[in-house]
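Colleagues,

For the teaching module next term, I've prepared a clean inverse folding example: a structure given as tokens, and then the sequence designed for it. I'd like students to try predicting residues themselves before seeing the answer, so please don't circulate the second half yet.
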């Protein structure tokens, strides 16, 4: 467990007056998930982003809010891009692909406007995401976020393939509220495990939804679930869902 994460867990325990065992129970996980890394300095396993999200959901204290109080993570105003930067040829002049984007602040990751249609902005102010059927979804780059490296490495496979995205609408309440920001891991574009993903039907702008694989179906099928019970789940073929990335961590609110 990284020192930042360990400090966060201890902060939550103190703020809520909970032992590690009690916190684990409250968050719905085995007690050893917390007791082993907290009590054994030689423990090699890091807490997963899912575990951190469970702790945050159960206690109302996010890792990002804790780190912000320490001054180790902060939101940055967007700095105009260097005019020498060029979009990738694959983007056909419409904007950057994530791999080609170099942040103005070293190590920062870009926040995109969740609403598509930013393609009319100047080159360099837009990032494109492939949504299938040969089409792209263009999103304005709003800001850059500098995330503590230890936290980012625990959350995503490759920080250079991560973006920050704001939540729109109420379909994912109560777990993801409008204005919340999440980190998307763009390397996760297959449904290997149930979870929350950034998806598209290939025609409309991307949405954040929970995917649940339906076992023993041929061809493989899954449920597209909105956490808000007011919205009905949909059942579709897995191949019909364009997965752009997985929601890897919660960052904060606008």
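(Answer key — instructors only)
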């Amino acid at each position: 467990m990284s020192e930042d994460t360990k400090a966060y867990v201890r902060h939550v325990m103190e703020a809520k007056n909970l032992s590690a065992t009690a916190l684990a129970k409250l968050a719905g996980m085995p007690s050893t998930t917390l007791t082993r890394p907290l009590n054994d300095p030689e423990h090699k396993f890091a807490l997963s982003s899912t575990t951190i999200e469970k702790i945050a959901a159960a206690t109302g204290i996010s890792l990002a809010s804790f780190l912000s109080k320490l001054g180790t993570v902060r939101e940055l105003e967007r700095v105009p891009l260097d005019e020498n930067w060029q979009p990738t040829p694959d983007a056909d002049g419409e904007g950057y692909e994530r791999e080609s984007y170099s942040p103005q602040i070293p190590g920062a990751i870009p926040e995109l406007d969740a609403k598509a249609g930013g393609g009319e902005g100047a080159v360099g102010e837009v990032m494109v995401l492939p949504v299938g059927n040969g089409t792209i979804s263009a999103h304005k780059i709003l800001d850059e976020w500098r995330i503590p490296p230890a936290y980012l490495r625990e959350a995503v496979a490759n920080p250079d393939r991560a973006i920050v995205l704001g939540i729109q609408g109420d379909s994912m309440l109560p777990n993801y509220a409008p204005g919340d920001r999440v980190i998307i891991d763009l390397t996760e574009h297959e449904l290997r495990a149930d979870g929350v993903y950034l998806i598209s039907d290939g025609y409309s702008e991307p949405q954040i939804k929970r995917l649940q694989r339906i076992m023993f179906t041929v061809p493989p099928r899954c449920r597209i679930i909105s956490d808000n019970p007011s919205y009905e789940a949909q059942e579709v073929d897995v191949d019909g869902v364009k997965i752009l990335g997985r929601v890897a961590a919660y960052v904060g609110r606008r």
